[in-house]
Amino acid sequence: MESIISVKDVTFFYPGEETATLKNVSLDVYKGEWLSIVGHNGSGKSTLAKLLNGLLLPNEGTVNVSEYVTAREDDIWEIRRQVGMVFQNPDNQFVGTSVQDDIAFGLENFGVPREEMIKRINESVQRVGMEAFLNQEPHQLSGGQKQRVAIAGILAQKPSVIVLDEATSMLDPVGRIEVMETVRELNQNEGITVISITHDLEEALSADRVVVMKMGEKAAEGKPDTIFQQRDLLKSAGLDLPFSLKLSEALRRQGVELDRGYLTQEELVNALWKLA
Amino acid sequence: MNLDIPDETFLALIGHTGSGKSTLIQHLNGLLKPSAGSIKMGETLLEAGGKKQDLKPLRKKAGIVFQYPEHQLFEETVEKDIMFGPRNFGMAEEEAKNTASRVIEMVGLPQTVLSKSPFDLSGGQMRRVAIAGVLAMNPEVLILDEPTAGLDPAGRVEIMDLFYDLHQKNKLTTVLVTHSMEDASKYADEIAVMHKGELYLHGKPSEIFNERKALQEAGLDVPETVQFLLKWNEKSGQNLSLSDFTIEELAKSLGQALKKRGS
């Protein structure tokens, strides 16, 4: 598989801190995949996200985005165009006074000509289903809608990677589904690589790959069905087991003879039905 | 809307964004006044168009833990931050210090934290300090606005268990605003669902979780245990129900059903 982002031996200290927030982390992100990064508060996952598009630079090691390097000043604009970030708080990332101004702001920064700008704004709002809201002011939008506008702003810059830094954690369940469905479509239909920093285990379950961060180090990396079987690893990383696995365990304690732990409700219902 | 919250109840207040939950809780300690109608909390009565009155007793009685409360820390030391509220309400310096030392233990932090700057603490610790600041006012009513937002799963359980423990030990009345049906089912005696500015459903968890269609219409759903049980019932043609909504209870109920079929 072709990697689009490559993190090599990265160590990172915040200024004035004695312990490293990231310790010797290496990681490849593959083109077109959905990678979830999970870990406890303070595990370094958000710091890692900010290193991916050069918002932070490593003290040691390198971060490459295709052939570009975040530490190289000449590369940083191209990297920021390619790797778009959606942050946690929907109210902190709206800069325009309307949806279209907000998206235009980002494009102006990249010097996109007006004609092209209008075309891209219209295209990108359609892709996130916000075309009816072009002239709306931010305060008239829900949290989920604001996050979709943030995503449209990124799309207008024709990115190859979208990084979601707990982008749905302040949203209600409806807003969460709205945003995740939008991103899933972009991932599946347009091949945009998605890196999702999240506490939502059910979301991580549907990722192609999962990275577990713990105390600034990469504790594990793999497919969700192998990662989420490792209860001790998850517990020690401050994470919980997904619902269906917890229920599988509880059923075994009740003497139900399941052959293994199941990750989704559907699989578990079917497995129980076969036992009946 | 009309809502009665009896003494010592743990009420979960649920509804999607814009449903009016936050507006409602801001009425509970007088941050907002009703345009019509009234709010009675203990002895204090807030009426629409009523005279200006001293809200201090009310605010002392009802402590609110806002969303991301750690954003409101501001003092040089944790101790000063916790003492700020009590001092403002006229508590003597020495007593306020003792209070700070008492509440810091209640939130599970060591005494040594008191002399530190709140800004040198981790996010999870900062949140505990902010919560300690509310507890220092010795509230009888605790209003929690999504107190676990942004915490990792382990931190979420710790904070919720802390509140539940306080609720029971100190015989508090607690109002928890949450999006989590799991938390509502685990801790609440009663659930109130808001939708479009109205009280949409109100009852015991077992009553509320029988109303899946209505919940879905309000942009909500039943807890995962109930979702699973419904899937099982559909597949098996059985009609199992739960007496509580924990995973253990669900496993027990499914285990018994399987044994019966097997025998």
From TrEMBL, chain A:
InterPro entries: AAA+_ATPase, ABC_transporter-like_ATP-bd, ABC_transporter-like_CS, ABC_transpr_CbiO/EcfA_su, ECF_ABC_transporter_ATP-bd, EcfA_1, P-loop_NTPase. Its main location: membrane. Keywords: ATP-binding, Cell membrane, Membrane, Nucleotide-binding, Translocase, Transport. GO terms for cellular component: ATP-binding cassette (ABC) transporter complex. One of its GO terms (molecular function) is ATP hydrolysis activity. Gene3D superfamilies: P-loop containing nucleotide triphosphate hydrolases. It is a peripheral membrane protein. It is found in: Cell membrane. Pfam families: ABC_tran (PF00005). The keyword Ligase does not apply. Residues 5-240 form the ABC transporter domain. Belongs to the ABC transporter superfamily. This is Energy-coupling factor transporter ATPase.
